[in-house]
Design brief:
478 residues; alpha/beta; 2 domains; eleven-stranded mixed β-sheet; binds glutamine
């Protein structure tokens, strides 16, 4: 029975709950058993509270028995990337500087999940402050890829991805500044969605690069991603960049198909991918053509320049955002004879090497004399990336590319060479720079049995069509 429970998507789970075939407490028990088996090997969690989850489940069972109508995520076990503020769990961003810190408020997305009766099991590992592509930059532990324990799950939302991929949760939330939802989804064989900038509130997300950050779901299927996205999207007055408009519905149009939809394959991003990834992409193209889409090839060289621009813009914003961790207001404080010495000691001890590297890069790029050479130039390249997308969307409706040029790499393999690690994001970064939505969909495995993801990209606010495309790929590759 337990194994069967873990196979259910959200709709199926709720049918069984409504039909009284299973109780919510039994669902949580099944996930607890799976966590007991998997977590010692995977190391996805930074905190876990199954007793609290079980009490919430019991309350839901009682409400159901009274005939109450429950929310859209009733009974769904959810895990949260540990850079989302929660009043019931510590929020560390996988950094020593926030060890044990319990925020005084919840991120808006956390409230939206629990308002819909989602059941939060715990918080998941990430690269410290979401800076990385492998989850190796966590100050606490290294999360392993469920397909091969010697490999990384991707990052920075690697804990949420690995938890969902190993069926320790049905839904994971992640954040995506340069690919941190989509790349780990690709490397662990699940779906990951980054919404249009402003679609989902960033209130209560520990800021990395505010002009690029978005929160989104990681799930086993496109349908589950659509449902969770519907719960998360929508205006929030507490985020000044939140879109005012009513978000589109996704679920009800999923099966409308892609007949006549024009899709451009970004050839220059395909060329840099490994042979296995290229083969998978060709299968996705086939699936879309079978479903009636018109697929053409399109070269967008500017997208690849986005990588260099991102590694100026993101560290610049990070250097400002991370100035608040000063030993006074949150978490760690190391003693010092003066306030300045205290701050230096705290930040020296509290931040890991990658975070320090980003703060230094960003501070340098913003400093007088270098600002024009680096920051302004990077912003110009950002405009070029936007212009390239505009050019593309004049003739196609959606774009298709690999999510990551390679499948999961070995733990340690890229750790010594930051630039090699940064290159992991070359396909995902452009849509953060432009603020457009994008999705990674599983597309089989390579010759080593490692998962491959393909990425669908759309113009701002095109989520409805994007999800229809994703569903068509998923169906076609089944
Ligand atoms: N890997 C990228 C970085 O290290 C993106 C991270 C993210 O999206 N949070 O900056």
């Amino acid at each position: 029975m337990n194994d069967e429970i873990l196979d259910w998507g959200i709709a199926e789970l709720q049918r069984r709950l409504d039909g009284r075939e299973v109780t919510t407490v039994e669902v949580i028990d099944a996930y607890e058993e799976q966590i007991a088996i998997q977590e010692p090997e995977i190391d996805a969690f930074l905190s876990l509270d199954l007793d609290a989850a079980r009490s919430r489940a019991a309350v839901q069972d009682a409400r159901r028995a009274r005939g109450e109508k429950l929310g859209r995520l009733a009974g769904v076990p959810v895990v949260l990337k540990d850079n989302l503020c929660t009043t019931t769990f510590p929020t560390t961003a996988a950094s020593k500087i926030l060890e044990g810190w319990i925020p005084p408020y919840n991120a808006t997305v956390v409230d939206r999940i629990t308002d819909q009766d989602g059941i939060v099991l715990g918080k998941t590992n990430l690269d410290e402050f979401a800076m990385g592509s492998s989850t190796e930059n966590s100050a606490y532990k290294i999360t392993k890829n469920p397909y091969d324990l010697e490999r990384v799950p991707g990052g920075s939302s690697g804990g949420s991805a690995a938890a969902v991929a190993s069926r320790m949760a049905l839904v994971g939330l992640g954040s995506d500044t340069g690919g941190s939802i989509r790349q780990p989804a690709a490397l662990t064989g699940i779906v990951g969605f980054k919404p249009t900038y402003g679609r989902v509130s960033r209130y209560g997300l520990l800021a990395f690069a505010s002009s690029l950050d978005q929160i989104g779901p990681l799930t086993a299927s496109v349908e589950d991603a659509a449902l969770v996205a519907e719960c998360l999207m929508g205006h929030d007055p507490r985020d000044a960049t939140s879109l005012q408009e009513v978000p589109p519905t996704l679920l009800s149009s999923l099966a409308e198909g892609v007949r006549g939809v024009r899709i451009g394959v970004v050839t220059n991003l395909v060329e840099i991918a490994s042979p296995g990834v290229q083969t998978a992409l060709a299968r996705a193209v086939d699936a879309l053509q079978q479903a009636g889409a018109t697929v053409t090839e399109i070269r967008l060289d500017e997208l690849a320049f986005g990588l260099a621009a991102y590694y100026v813009v993101a560290p610049a914003e990070a250097s400002s955002n991370l100035a608040r961790y000063d030993g006074v207001r949150y978490g760690l404080r190391e003693p010092g004879a003066t306030v300045e010495e205290m701050m230096i000691a705290t930040r020296t001890k509290g931040f890991g090497p990658e975070v320090k590297r980003r703060i230094m890069l960003g501070t340098y790029a913003l400093s007088a004399g270098y600002y024009d050479a680096f920051y302004v130039t990077a912003q110009r390249v950002r405009s070029l990336v936007r212009a390239a997308f505009d050019r593309a969307y004049a003739s196609v409706d959606l774009l298709l590319s690999p999510t990551s040029p390679t499948t999961a790499f070995r733990i340690g393999e890229r750790a010594a060479d930051p630039v090699e690690m940064y290159r992991s994001d070359i396909c995902t970064i452009p849509s953060n720079l432009s603020g457009d939505p994008a999705l990674s969909i599983p597309a089989g495995v390579d010759s080593d049995g490692l998962p491959i993801g393909v990425q669908l990209l759309g113009p701002a606010r095109s989520e409805q069509l994007l999800f229809r495309g994703a569903y068509a790929v998923e169906e076609g590759l089944r």
